[in-house]
Specification:
8-stranded mixed β-barrel; 39% helix; 4 helices; single chain; alpha+beta; 2 domains
Length: 227
């Protein structure tokens, strides 16, 4: 090589440097290309793989889903044992009252609510459902004949026996809600005060005719959720 002319030596050195540079670029390119794969392989072998994290998350979700499913089944079985369904129903242990609830019944339409009260307790249309943080209004009354009042009041006939602290259980959408009686009062038949401010906090209102078997007044029981 020492015998080569200077310009040939320069060309040789240039080509050698260029070759080394190309090889270097190729190696760097390979590193960048395969780095993610290598990283995943190493992470997987060391137990830090994203796949395992995903598996862990799926297992946790599956555990939660199974737990929720088991909880739902327990609620359904409990409701069934009490003689009601878990879709929408009420149970008042102290007075041995249990009934399914018909949702969204127009309290101002006699034909509608009389038909509903033959099947169970009525949920007043325009009020909310358990768990929504607002007022749920249930009634079991009639403004028809005395015979029908007695018939339709059967579920809440002993509602007047409830006192502060007594428990009321409501099933809704396969969930169980426990309430505690807070107050009881008798109001005029046309009193709608308890239907006001229904968006201000969760509470359960139970209404029936008073005295039992008449349409003279209304018995109102207010209960708050047990935390």
């Amino acid at each position: 090589m020492l015998l080569l002319p200077l310009f040939l030596r320069l060309i040789y050195m240039l080509l050698r440097g260029l070759g080394a540079g190309l090889i270097g670029f190729a190696v760097i390119g390979l590193i960048f290309s395969y780095a993610p794969i290598i990283k995943q392989e190493i992470s997987y072998d060391l137990g830090f793989g994203g796949g395992r994290n995903i598996e862990d998350q799926l297992q946790k979700l599956n555990f939660v889903n199974v737990a929720e499913a088991e909880k739902t089944v327990r609620v359904q079985e409990e409701a069934k044992a009490l003689g009601v369904d878990s879709y929408f129903s009420i149970v008042i242990p102290k007075i041995d009252a249990a009934s399914n609830i018909i949702a969204n019944v127009d309290a101002g339409n006699p034909d509608e609510y009389l038909a509903a009260l033959k099947k169970g307790v009525a949920h007043a249309k325009g009020t909310y459902f358990p768990g929504q943080g607002k007022t749920t209004y249930l009634f079991s009354h009639s403004t028809d004949t005395a015979y029908n009042v007695s018939q339709y009041n059967a579920v809440f006939y002993l509602l007047r026996k409830l006192e502060t602290g007594d428990k009321v259980l409501v099933f809704f959408a396969d969930k169980k809600y426990l309430y505690e009686v807070e107050s009881k009062s008798v109001v005029e038949a046309d009193n709608t005060e308890f239907l006001q401010n229904i968006s201000e906090g969760e509470r359960l209102i139970l209404q029936t005719c008073d005295p039992p078997g008449t349409t003279w007044k209304r018995l109102i029981v207010v209960a708050k959720p047990v935390k």
